[in-house]
Amino acid sequence: MRSTLLALTIVAGAVGGMTLAHQDEHGKGGVKTLSRKDITEKIDGKKATATMVEVTLGPGEASAPHRHPGPAFGYVLEGEYEWAIDDNPAKILKVGDTFYEPTGRLHRVSKNPSKEGKTRILAVVLHPADVTDIVIPEKDKK
């Protein structure tokens, strides 16, 4: 847990100093891009970018299953957050908890489990610089 928090702190520092960018929609919850900054490290030999977002989910709101084009680090700012990747059991994370998602893994559960009160998450995704959307919706398997 400490290494995840340390990595998040390092990445947050690397992307700090940028101005607020824009507001997007991510499932039912809101996503505000806080910064998007090219970094010196490369991902798979490609130029890389770190994108920091604040995700807000209202009571009972959830985002659709998705993947990220690079590793994602998250920190719960407010409320509770129900989170699961791949077939792992869902966990309820609380304020101050962190999480890590390896590149391309299925972010299966992303939900505010509360019946009242919002959930806010700070997330940083490291990704190839040519990627414009850090969320890859999961295709329905029919």
Which SSEs are present, and which pair or pack?
Layout: H1 2-15, E1 22-26, E2 29-43, E3 46-57, E4 66-67, E5 72-78, E6 81-85, E7 91-93, E8 98-101, E9 107-111, E10 119-128, E11 136-137
Antiparallel strand pairs: 1-2, 2-3, 3-10, 4-11, 5-8, 5-10, 6-7, 6-9
CATH architecture: Sandwich
The first-to-last residue Cα distance is: 37 Å
On the 0 to 100 scale, the average pLDDT is 84
* CATH fold category name: Jelly Rolls
* CA-based gyration radius: 14 Å
Q: Strand pairing plus helix content: what structural class?
A: mainly beta
Number of strand segments: 11
Measured by DSSP, the beta-strand proportion falls in over 45%
The residue ranges in which pLDDT falls below 50 over 5 or more consecutive positions are 1-28
Tell me the domain tally. Answer: 1
Q: SSE order in H/E notation?
A: HEEEEEEEEEEE
Q: CATH homologous superfamily, by name?
A: Jelly Rolls
Residues in helices, as a percent range? under 10%
Q: Helix count, per DSSP?
A: 1
Brief characterization of the structure:
10% of the residues lie in helices and 49% in strands. It has 142 residues and is mainly β. The strands form three sheets. It has a six-stranded antiparallel beta sheet with strand order 1-2-3-10-5-8, covered by helices on one side.
